[in-house]
């Protein structure tokens, strides 16, 4: 799975993107965020407030129960502030 | 019908002329141009850097534009959004909607910018004159403005 981070999530995690292999138990967005949060202090800090994290799976907004799998492009970012 | 995400500035006059050229059905055109404000809350800004998600940003803008065309009888529409480092006074965004009559043009233009603000993946990093950089937080009022169109 290709993971992308934007804005302050990128700063807190410490990098813009990475490749990861999901454990079998991780099958949806909610589980993915929980799994990421325990990968290190930087991830835990970035994901400490789930309400301020938006997730896109293959460039489409996703909800906690939406499925994820290896091969997906998953982006994590704060609520958008363009315009 | 066009969406552009670019680092470069744009010329609103040229864009308007190009949009309405060769279409004599257009009777009204509404344009919104967003600029970098000097004051953010209580501090003076020296710069604003816009980040985006190449691929998804264009895709979302195209979808917002398509939604506007579903709702109003538009002859033409245009969304231009810049990214990168901008300074106070610089143009950030242009949305335009052209129709036979003004009501559709006004409403669609407002819809385009309201939805863009809450759905298109862009993030603003503000820098003040002391060099302190802060990510802009999403505003409740923007969500409310977008919700009016649900």
Q: Report the order of strands and helices of chain A.
A: EHEHHEEE
Please outline the major beta sheet of chain B. 5 strands, antiparallel
Structural class label of chain B: alpha+beta
CATH superfamily of chain B: Molybdopterin biosynthesis MoaE subunit
Low-confidence stretches of chain B: none
Question: CATH fold name of chain B, please?
Answer: Aldehyde Oxidoreductase, domain 3
| Secondary structure: helix percent of chain B | 25-40%
State the total count of DSSP E strands of chain B: 9
Question: Are there runs of chain A of 5+ residues with pLDDT below 50, and where?
Answer: none
Arithmetic mean pLDDT of chain A: 97
**Rounded radius of gyration of chain B (Å):** 16 Å
What's the arrangement of strands in the largest beta sheet of chain A?
2-1-5-3-4
Shape of chain A: globular
Task: Give the C-level CATH assignment of chain B.
Answer: Alpha Beta
- Helical segment count of chain A: 3
What's the structural domain tally of chain A? 1
Description:
The complex is a heterodimer of chains A (83) and B (150). Chain A is of the alpha+beta class and 83 residues long. Chain A has one domain: Ubiquitin-like (UB roll), CATH 3.10.20.30. Chain A has three helices and five strands. Chain A has a five-stranded mixed sheet with strand order 2-1-5-3-4. Chain A starts with a strand and ends in a 6-residue tail after the last strand. Chain B has 150 residues and is α+β, with helices and mostly antiparallel strands. Helices cover 34% and strands 37% of the residues of chain B. Chain B contains four helices and nine strands. In chain B, β8 and β9 form a beta hairpin. In chain B, α2 packs antiparallel against α3 and α3 crosses α4. The longest helix of chain B has 18 residues. The radius of gyration of chain B is 16 Å and the shape is globular. The mean pLDDT of chain B is 95. At the A-B interface, loops of A face β4, α3 and β8 of B.
């Amino acid at each position: 799975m290709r993971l992308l981070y934007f804005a302050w999530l990128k700063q807190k995690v410490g990098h813009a993107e990475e490749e990861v292999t999901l454990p079998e138990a991780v099958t949806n967005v909610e589980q993915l965020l929980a799994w990421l949060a325990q990968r290190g202090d930087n991830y835990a800090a970035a994901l400490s407030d789930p309400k301020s994290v938006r997730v896109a799976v293959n460039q489409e907004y996703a909800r906690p129960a939406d499925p994820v799998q290896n091969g997906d492009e998953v982006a994590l970012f704060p609520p958008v502030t363009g315009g | 019908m066009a969406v552009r995400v670019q680092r470069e500035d744009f010329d609103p006059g040229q864009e308007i002329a190009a949009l309405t050229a060769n279409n004599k059905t257009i009777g009204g055109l509404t344009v919104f141009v967003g600029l970098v404000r000097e004051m953010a809350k209580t501090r003076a800004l020296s710069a604003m850097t816009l980040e985006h998600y190449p691929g998804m940003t264009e895709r979302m803008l195209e979808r917002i534009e398509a939604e506007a065309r579903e709702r109003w009888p538009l002859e033409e529409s245009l969304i231009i959004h810049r990214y990168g480092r901008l300074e106070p006074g610089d143009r950030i965004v242009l949305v335009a909607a052209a129709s036979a009559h003004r009501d559709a043009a006004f409403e669609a233009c407002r819809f385009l910018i309201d939805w863009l603000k809450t759905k298109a993946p862009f993030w603003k990093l503000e820098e003040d004159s002391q060099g302190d950089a802060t990510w802009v937080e999403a505003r409740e009022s923007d969500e409310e403005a977008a919700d009016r169109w649900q």
